Amino acid sequence: MPYKNIKTGIRRRNILAWFLAIFLMLFYALLYWDKEIDEKIIPFLQVLFPGFRFSCEQFMAKLSQKVDFLSYPLRGKGADKWFFYGFVYTLLVVVMGLRFIRHYRHEKYQVYRTVSVMGVQLVLAFLVPSLLQKANVKEFYFSYFWPLKIEYFLPSALYELPRAFFYWGVFMSFIAVPVLTYFFGKRWYCSWVCGCGALANTAGDDFRHLSTKTEFSWKLEKITIYSILVIAIVMTAILFINHFRAIPDTFSEFAFALQRWYFFFIGAGFAGVVGTGFYPLAGTRVWCRFGCPLAAILGILQVTISRFRITTNHGLCIACGNCSTYCEMGIDVRAYAMRGEDIRRAACVGCGICQAVCPRGVLRLENRVLGLRQSK
Ligand code: SF4
Ligand code: SF4
Ligand code: SF4
């Protein structure tokens, strides 16, 4: 069947997978940098190809108009590129989430957590921010916190956001994150709430096996993810120092340049263009594994104070390798199962797919302090 051949090919990184990756990266580049491309790249192309006419900004504006029918009732105004993006993103999570649920309908854990991410995306990351705009309140995403949504704990948030929203972000980042991670591990957020994890586990499910499992990638992810966390913390501190100094000088120029650099390279380039563009080439969790600063914090908590672990019953393991193949975070689950060792890895997002694809019931997701077991 042609459709099946196309799908299998894309899942195996064939030429169509490369086209899909380029398409996704171009889309994200247009989304984030349409004005910059119009100013810096289009004139250059016009020198090379006289008569060439194209405006990325106008293209995105026209594309966005397609969802005006939804934007007017929800926001009281026409659609812009961010509303269009939010609509497409949410649609993908919901439609592909239903497909995912159908596939894993016999796994209660998979069904519940997928319903959760679909609901969070639809309500907290799409409807509520839209309705806030209709009420002339600054749009706010209640399901994202510092340092993933870094601007929610920067000095600018003090005057741009309603104070209650600012306190919500502070409460979630500094109290809810450690407490919930203590009880449930990283999964409470990465597999039940976060929109990035939602897209990875629904629209990206066909690509989860592409995550590299090499030891090199494990070492690399530890370097990159903690480096970005350090940069995020240092940048936040510098911006607050600058805010309270309130003196426009070289230091303040440096602070704002650092902020612009972070949003351009980390926020847009890494999290958006590479993070999603690489789905068909390197799996769905490139950003989550190698970049996300919140994942770094959750991971540290998971391996130090959290009660969450995956237990293994090595006597039952037949070394088939399904668990390792389908681990989106590149963890060699089989090696742990064969040693009979609990899995407590900072990278593990507790998606539970290793448990779901194990034919022998070797693996269990557990929160030991509560005595809870995630039944199959
Ligand atoms: S690793 Fe970061 S981006 Fe990925 S699901 Fe977790 S919090 Fe979200
Ligand atoms: S070890 Fe299992 S639960 Fe953890 S990320 Fe990999 S597949 Fe998901
Ligand atoms: S899927 Fe199950 S049986 Fe196969 S290697 Fe992993 S733990 Fe062992």
Provide an overview of this structure.
The protein is mainly α. The protein has one domain. The chain contains 19 helices and three strands. The protein has helices spanning 2-11, 15-40, 42-48, 56-65, 68-75, 81-103, 108-134, 155-160, 163-184, 187-190, 195-201, 215-245, 250-277, 279-282, 286-290, 293-304, 322-325, 333-339, 353-357, and strands at residues 308-312, 363-367, 372-373. It has a three-stranded antiparallel sheet. Helix 4 packs across helix 6 (81-103) and helix 12 crosses helix 16. The longest helix has 31 residues, at 215-245. The model has no long low-confidence stretch (mean pLDDT 95). The site of one iron/sulfur cluster has 14 residues, from helix 19.
Number of strands: 3
SS summary, helix count = 19
Q: Give the structural class.
A: mainly alpha
Rg from Cα: 22 Å
The total number of structural domains is 1
Helix content range: 55-70%
Order of helices and strands: HHHHHHHHHHHHHHHHEHHHEE
Biggest sheet character: 3 strands, antiparallel
Order of strands, widest sheet: 1-2-3
Bound ligands, named by name, code or SMILES? iron/sulfur cluster
Give the arrangement of secondary structure elements.
Blueprint: H1 2-11, H2 15-40, H3 42-48, H4 56-65, H5 68-75, H6 81-103, H7 108-134, H8 155-160, H9 163-184, H10 187-190, H11 195-201, H12 215-245, H13 250-277, H14 279-282, H15 286-290, H16 293-304, E1 308-312, H17 322-325, H18 333-339, H19 353-357, E2 363-367, E3 372-373
Antiparallel strand pairs: 1-2, 2-3
Helix pairs in contact: 1-2, 2-13, 4-6, 6-7, 7-11, 12-13, 12-16
